[in-house]
Amino acid sequence: DKIFPRNLDQQRRMNIMKLVRYLEIRHRILHLYAIFGLTAFIGLPLFKYLMFYDRSSGRPLLDEYHQHASWFPYQLKQSNRAYPYMYVYETFITIFGINCLFTWDHIYTVTVAQFVMHFDYINDQLKELDAKQTLEGCKSKEFYESLRVIIIYHQHIYELGDKLRKTFNVSLFLTDIISAASMCFHIYLMANSDDIIAIILFIFPCFVQVAFTFDNCYQGTRVAEASARMQTA
């Protein structure tokens, strides 16, 4: 935030609109997912319960009538009388979890996007330098002064990159571990289910976790490519 361009001219030179457009498109995609994906994820178990479960039968409720395949003491998840309370609780957990995921993703994505923006700006500054100026007495001082400013700026960005790595290393590792465990668990549930709605419900988190894992890799690739472009600038 301290080095983010404040004046309009500097923002144009650093191509801020490219950053803004990228974040806007990403925000719209996540917004659509939150509307349609979460609605289906939360609503399908309730729809199946209302349409297909015989409440007078007294049969225990299976995981396919719940949003999360989990365990609760005293057989609360299997109880028909406790189902409304469990459904409200699971809905709260779903919204809370996806909000935490989106918040972390937003912080990570915005940080990486700004990091890439600064690298691209350094590359543009290097391209604007004319090495022929070193042969001219008056312009050589201007050339080396511009180069010195770019080097200092570049070193500062590298220091920020090191802080970025230290900040997100553990969280990315834990996210990947938890996502892998969750996908294995949901695949196991799908393999042991013959119900189409249940399979759709179980496969939905897998797609989300694969997408976010892919996106994390993509963000790392963006940083690597931005830093590599400096060698050809």
Counting DSSP E segments of at least 2 residues, the number of strands comes to 0
Biggest sheet, open or closed, and with what strands and sense?
A: none
Quaternary state reads: single chain
Number of helices: 5
Low-confidence segments, given as residue ranges, are none
**Residues in helices, as a percent range:** over 70%
Shape call: elongated
In whole angstroms, how far apart are the ends? 26 Å
Calculate Rg over CA atoms. Answer: 26 Å
How large is the share of residues in beta strands? under 5%
Judged by helices, strands and strand pairing, the structural class is mainly alpha
List the helices and strands in order.
Answer: HHHHH
Count of distinct structural domains? 1
Average pLDDT rating = 82
Q: Any overview of this molecule?
A:
The protein has one domain. It is built from five helices and no strands. The protein starts with 7 loop residues before the first helix and ends in a 5-residue tail after the last helix. 10% of the residues are buried. The protein is elongated and about 95 Å long. With 233 residues, it is mostly helical. The model has no long low-confidence stretch (mean pLDDT 82).
